[in-house]
Write a structure and sequence with these properties.
With 228 residues, this protein is an alpha+beta fold. Helices cover 34% and strands 22% of the residues. Strand 5 and strand 6 form a beta hairpin. Helix 1 packs across helix 2 and helix 1 packs across helix 5. The chain starts with a helix and ends in an 8-residue tail after the last helix.
Length: 228
Amino acid sequence: MTDVKALAAWFVEFAKRHAKHDESTAFADEALKKMFDIVSAAGFEPSAVAVGTLVGNRYMNGEYEGTYKVNPHSPFKVIGEDGKDHWAATRWLNCLWELVNPQLLFRVANNPDELTALVDRIRREIERSAPFKPILIGPDGELLCESYPPSYGHFVDHKNDESNIFNYAGVHKYCGEVERKRVSATHDALVCRGCYLRVTFPSSVKTFGELRVAMAQLARNKWRWPRD
């Protein structure tokens, strides 16, 4: 299991050295590996973390206005599983770096209580950023994943097993959006808009945690609900 508290403590210490232009902050493989571990612990699926800046195009009312830096506070960018720049993860990591700005680090450097509080803040943001564990919804490994909030890449609240499932249930990984539909007096169905995967579950299921339990039961029954 990932020790998020240890990662947070390392991150703050690394940021302190980086702010002082300490030679030990040279972006060695070890530092890149730690950044990779942090991004992974936050729920992203990177293939690598590299030193670099992402540049985006800025538009206003459809008119090009120039470029902007996606990660002005962070010296790192994140590479996704597809080998391309992972914009959401890079934005998120930039937000984490914004929390350890040099002015704040200077203030807390000689204050153990404030330094501990900063490490705890980093830990909480890493843990808060992780979306809920995908739910198996089909016999071939089909997964229901969280529908990321529109501002994903920043610090936002995610769904969890206590969250209610409404008409828009989430995303069929690798495929498309998933809707919840009423299909009988006793059952609802998850329907993928991309491939039309359809899996039923009791209408009494309200939360993702309850759905997780129902899908596990369905898998044990070879993906067929027993007849009454």
